[in-house]
């Protein structure tokens, strides 16, 4: 396994690899400070989560058994600030905050890009979006950007002009029609 892979497990060896990745990507991440606990889920809870994911992301239904195989252990990693990370076989798949909606990780979105509707920003916005900037209306309506129909509060994949993979996962604060 490479040092830049996304894995999370309650065992010490895999946890160290995850911590290295998270430190490399997000700055300081200390398991003792940031992770409250790690819980393996029961089958009934997994079914409920799968139903919630199907309701939230209708395009994921045919692929859900491939993403979350029945026999593989599914765990919730609880972090501080009420963040929960859904993992299967140590791979981070979804996260949410305060019992809110699930958001797919970028790695999952790169494997299954069709699970979220897309919005596209122009080339000039790439460095700002990757730095964590919010995307304003002009960023989605300028030349090079593409604004696809989406309702307010829809979770979307933010794509970039001329790029294959998503830059980030976002939430539409306004509908595409209002923009």
TrEMBL record:
GO CC term, one of those recorded: cytoplasm
Any coiled-coil ranges, and where?
Answer: none
Q: Which GO terms describe its molecular function?
A: RNA binding
Which InterPro entries does the record associate with it? MCT-1/Tma20 (IPR016437), Pre-PUA (IPR041366), PUA (IPR002478), PUA-like_sf (IPR015947), Uncharacterised_CHP00451 (IPR004521)
The answer on whether this UniProt entry bears the keyword Cytoplasm reads: yes
Question: In terms of domain of life, where is this protein from?
Answer: Eukaryota
- Range of residues in the leader sequence: none
Q: Which residues form the PUA domain?
A: 119-179
**What positions does the domain Pre-PUA occupy?**
29-113
> What processes in GO biological process is this protein linked to?
formation of translation preinitiation complex; translation reinitiation
Q: Where in the cell is it found?
A: Cytoplasm
Keywords of the record, alphabetical order, are: Cytoplasm, Growth regulation
- Identify the Pfam families for this entry: Pre-PUA, PUA
- UniProt family annotation: Belongs to the MCTS1 family.
Supply the name of the protein.
Answer: Malignant T-cell-amplified sequence
The record lists the organism as: Phyllostomus discolor
């Amino acid at each position: 396994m490479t040092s830049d892979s996304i894995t999370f497990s309650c065992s010490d060896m895999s946890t160290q690899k995850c911590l290295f990745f998270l430190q490399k990507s997000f700055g300081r991440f200390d398991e003792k400070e940031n992770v409250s606990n790690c819980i393996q889920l029961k089958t009934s809870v997994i079914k409920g989560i799968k139903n919630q994911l199907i309701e939230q992301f209708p395009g994921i239904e045919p692929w859900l058994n491939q993403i979350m195989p029945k026999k593989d252990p599914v765990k919730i990693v609880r972090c501080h600030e009420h963040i929960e990370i859904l993992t299967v076989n140590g791979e981070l798949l979804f996260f949410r905050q305060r019992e809110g909606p699930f958001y797919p990780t970028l790695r999952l979105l790169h494997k299954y890009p069709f699970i979220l509707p897309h919005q596209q920003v122009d080339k000039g916005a790439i460095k700002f979006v990757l730095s964590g900037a919010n995307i304003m209306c002009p960023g989605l309506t300028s030349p090079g950007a593409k604004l696809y129909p989406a309702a307010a509060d829809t979770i979307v994949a933010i794509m970039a002009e001329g790029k294959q993979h998503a830059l980030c996962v976002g939430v539409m604060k306004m509908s595409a029609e209002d923009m």
